[in-house]
Amino acid sequence: MLSSSSISTEKNGSSVEIVILTNETYINSETVCQMLFKLASLGLNIPIAVVLDNARYQRCRLVQDYAKELGIQLCFLPSYSPQLNLIERLWRFVKKECLYSKYYENFSDFKSAISNYINSANTDKKEKLNSLLNLKFQSFNKVQILTV
């Protein structure tokens, strides 16, 4: 099961909402366009900006043109920067809660456990998500960089 998820946060980081689009094939440019359509269909009265990594299917002309048509701004993370990608934090959280030290009798049970956990995240796991999925990063004041 592959899933494309979107995480929405307010400026102060106090509110987190997960918007989910799930499929059982590969994620490609058409799947990204479906996610953009789903976000645009929420009827939000605020500008929408989507932060993406540098996968080719996200940077392609189809996705960029469709985002422009929907009025969605696309922001791309620097290459090789998973620490900046909030979706990576969500996946780590889901894996910890659903996969570590757990046995599933069959693939259907495994798939259901992940789907149920993600679907309940907006309500049951709200406090954990608010602390995990914020835009605050640790900074170091007195850093000494040595060049070799």
Summary of the model, kept short:
The protein contains six helices and four strands. It is of the alpha+beta class and 148 residues long. It has a single domain, classed as Nucleotidyltransferase, domain 5, CATH 3.30.420.10.
Layout: helices, strands, pairs:
Blueprint (H helix, E strand, L loop, with lengths): L1 E8 L6 E8 L5 H12 L7 E5 L3 H4 L1 H10 L1 E5 L9 H13 L8 H18 L1 H7 L16
Parallel strand pairs: 3-4
Antiparallel strand pairs: 1-2
Query: Major sheet: order of its strands?
Result: 1-2
Task: Return Rg in Å.
Answer: 17 Å
Number of helices: 6
Helix fraction by DSSP (H/I, runs of at least 4):
40-55%
Into which percentage range does the β-strand content fall? 15-25%
In the CATH scheme, the class would be Alpha Beta
What is the N-to-C succession of helices and strands? EEHEHHEHHH
What integer is the average pLDDT?
Answer: 79
The biggest sheet, with number of strands, parallel, antiparallel or mixed sense and barrel status, is: 2 strands, antiparallel
User: What is the CATH architecture annotation?
Assistant: 2-Layer Sandwich
Envelope shape: globular
Distance between the termini: 45 Å
Q: How many β-strand runs?
A: 4
Q: What structural class do you assign from the helix and strand content? A: alpha+beta
**Quaternary form:** single chain
At the fold tier of CATH, the topology name is Nucleotidyltransferase, domain 5
Outline the low-pLDDT stretches. 9-14
Count of the domains: 1
CATH homologous superfamily, by name?
Ribonuclease H-like superfamily/Ribonuclease H
Pfam families: DDE_3
InterPro entries: RNaseH-like_sf (IPR012337), RNaseH_sf (IPR036397), Tc1-like_DDE_dom (IPR038717)
Protein name: Tc1-like transposase DDE domain-containing protein
GO molecular function: nucleic acid binding
